[in-house]
Write a structure and sequence with these properties.
The chain is an alpha+beta fold and about 110 residues long. It has a domain of about 80 residues: THUMP domain-like (Alpha-Beta Plaits). It is built from three helices and four strands, in the order βαββαβα. It has a four-stranded antiparallel beta sheet, with helices on one face. The chain is globular and about 50 Å long. The N and C termini lie far apart (about 45 Å).
Length: about 110
């Protein structure tokens, strides 16, 4: 099984005709830092997606991505088929089995209790 990361790019996204060159350089830099671990990097809609084997410790990925020039942020992510049941199952797997506190009636997430 693989772990998926969504990588958000910095000023590389603003580059013009030489943007592919900078994106490829960023890919090579990430791969060099994760050498020894099976990984795949793909691009879609101005983001990079890193799939890496579960044998790679999360701390190694965190260090590699947080110290690579050109990355402004990254998030561990999950993928699921475009079916509601599959999405629910992936969400349950991602967040575990609670316990989760429910919001009091009439309150919305982000509102403070005062």
């Amino acid at each position: 099984m693989n772990t998926l990361y969504v990588i958000r790019l910095g000023e590389i996204a603003l580059k013009g005709l030489n943007r592919p060159m900078f994106e490829n350089m960023l890919r090579r830099n990430i791969k060099a830092k994760l050498k020894g671990y099976r990984n795949t990097i793909t691009k879609q809609k101005g983001r990079l997606f890193l799939q890496i084997g579960d044998d790679c410790p999360r701390e190694v990925v965190d260090t590699a991505l947080s110290t690579t020039f050109g990355i402004v942020g990254y998030s561990r992510s999950f993928s699921a088929p475009k079916e509601l049941k599959a999405i629910h199952e992936a969400a349950r797997e991602a967040i575990g089995e609670g316990p989760f506190d429910e919001l009091p009636a009439g309150r919305r997430a982000g509102e403070n209790g005062s």
